[in-house]
């Protein structure tokens, strides 16, 4: 099934370590709306997909042409804001209850891993321009994929994400297992950016973080081998994203054609980095037990087969924008060894990515 919207949609994005900002804008015809990720087979455009596809939160494909964006010269369409969801609960008390439910399920052996997410609404005393927030995110986070996406179906989202879901062109493709999180102090950030042997140091990771990362890497290796006979996994290493570091394993693989990218994406998403294991059971448990709906947080977005290139990223470090508030989302992976205070602190650290953009835009 596919339906059509009569309203304009746009995506403004900048790839990691790139100086170029691109704009995809669909003005004269509606975006494509899909009720399954596999229906992206053969599609082209900028994709925005939710954590779980529903009639209320479908896959949206903006099918305009990608053009260069110039700050101060390019005029963006008006954003779609919609109405803030009041049904979900927020705060430490609801997180405490969620954590206890999730941890019990892990301790009982029902799951190998679960990802618990939360949200935080920050009232806005003044209307902050989504465009200015996007540019501030670009300035602050050169290593991340930055995207501002606005559609009638999704509302308006700003994302600064370090995690590739799928990228490539022709028959050469890439994905990554990104899991485990540590915060760096200012001194540690300076040390991390120095070459090893010249004052640089690599963080020492806990076994819990290493185990979490291995679960994601093993999942991806098994899924990819269903689609490719040539999968190469690189050694795990530490990467920086803002003031946080993560464990990462890169995968390169070949595909016979690009006609089944939607089917591949449906197999990969959601990965254990944002969901859990077993996948389907974990996703159902999350939907039923998290206090606040994720919507497009922990989904994925980016250009699909545009100009022969695909750059799809997991929707992390993100917030939904409204005229009177900003709703921040973050989460963390839980194992049976997880401690609630540590996991809450990790979600706070991840929310700092968008908090800093808001604070800088208010000055």
SSE diagram, text form:
Layout: E1 2-4, E2 9-14, E3 22-26, E4 32-34, E5 45-49, E6 59-62, E7 66-68, H1 92-107, E8 113-123, H2 130-140, E9 145-151, E10 155-161, E11 164-169, E12 172-183, H3 186-192, H4 207-224, E13 231-233, E14 237-241, E15 244-254, H5 261-268, E16 276-277, H6 279-289, E17 300-304, E18 310-314, E19 318-321, E20 325-334, H7 340-362
Antiparallel strand pairs: 1-4, 2-3, 2-9, 3-7, 4-6, 5-6, 5-17, 8-16, 8-20, 9-10, 10-19, 11-12, 11-18, 12-15, 13-15, 14-15, 17-18, 19-20
Helix pairs in contact: 2-7
Give the CA-CA distance, first to last residue: 46 Å
- Round the mean pLDDT to the nearest integer and report it: 91
Helical percent range?
Answer: 25-40%
Order of helices and strands: EEEEEEEHEHEEEEHHEEEHEHEEEEH
CATH topology: Anthranilate synthase
Look at the helices and sheets and give the structural class: alpha+beta
Biggest sheet layout? 11 strands, antiparallel
Radius of gyration: 19 Å
Number of domains: 1
- Tell the overall outline: globular
Identify low-pLDDT runs: 1-6
DSSP strand (E) fraction? 25-35%
Helix count equals 7
Instruction: Identify the CATH class.
Output: Alpha Beta
- Corresponding CATH superfamily: Anthranilate synthase
The tally of beta strands, per DSSP, is 20
Based on the structure given, which CATH architecture is correct? 4-Layer Sandwich
């Amino acid at each position: 099934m596919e339906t059509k919207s009569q309203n304009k949609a746009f995506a403004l994005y900048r790839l990691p370590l790139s100086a170029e900002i691109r704009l995809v804008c669909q003005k004269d015809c509606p975006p494509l709306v899909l009720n399954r990720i596999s229906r992206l087979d053969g599609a082209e455009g900028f994709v925005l997909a939710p954590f779980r596809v529903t009639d209320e939160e479908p896959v949206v494909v903006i099918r305009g042409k990608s053009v260069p964006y110039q700050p101060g010269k390019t005029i963006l369409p008006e954003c779609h804001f919609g109405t803030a969801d009041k049904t979900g609960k927020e705060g430490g008390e609801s997180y405490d209850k969620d954590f206890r439910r999730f941890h019990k399920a892990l301790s009982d052996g029902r799951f190998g891993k679960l990802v618990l997410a939360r949200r935080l609404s920050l009232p806005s005393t003044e209307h902050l321009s989504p465009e200015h927030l996007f540019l501030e995110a670009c300035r602050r986070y050169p290593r991340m994929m930055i995207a501002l996406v606005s559609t009638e179906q999704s509302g308006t989202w700003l994302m600064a994400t370090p995690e590739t879901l799928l990228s490539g062109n022709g028959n050469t493709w890439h994905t990554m297992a990104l899991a485990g999180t540590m915060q760096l102090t200012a001194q540690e950030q300076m040390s991390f950016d120095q070459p090893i042997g010249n004052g640089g140091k690599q963080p020492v990771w806990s076994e819990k973080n290493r185990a979490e990362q291995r679960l994601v890497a093993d999942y991806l290796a098994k899924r990819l081998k269903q689609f490719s006979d040539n999968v190469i996994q690189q050694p795990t290493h530490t990467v920086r994203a803002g003031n946080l570091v993560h464990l990462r394993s890169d995968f390169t693989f070949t595909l016979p054609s690009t006609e089944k990218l939607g089917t591949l994406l449906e197999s990969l998403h959601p990965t254990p980095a944002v969901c859990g294991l077993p996948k389907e059971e974990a996703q159902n448990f999350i939907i039923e037990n998290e206090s606040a709906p994720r919507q497009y947080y922990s989904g994925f977005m980016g250009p699909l087969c545009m100009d022969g290139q695909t750059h799809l990223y997991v929707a992390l470090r993100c917030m939904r924008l409204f005229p009177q508030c900003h709703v921040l989302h973050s989460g963390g992976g839980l194992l049976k060894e997880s401690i609630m205070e540590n996991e809450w602190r990790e979600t706070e650290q991840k929310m700092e990515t968008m908090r800093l953009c808001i604070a800088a835009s208010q000055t």
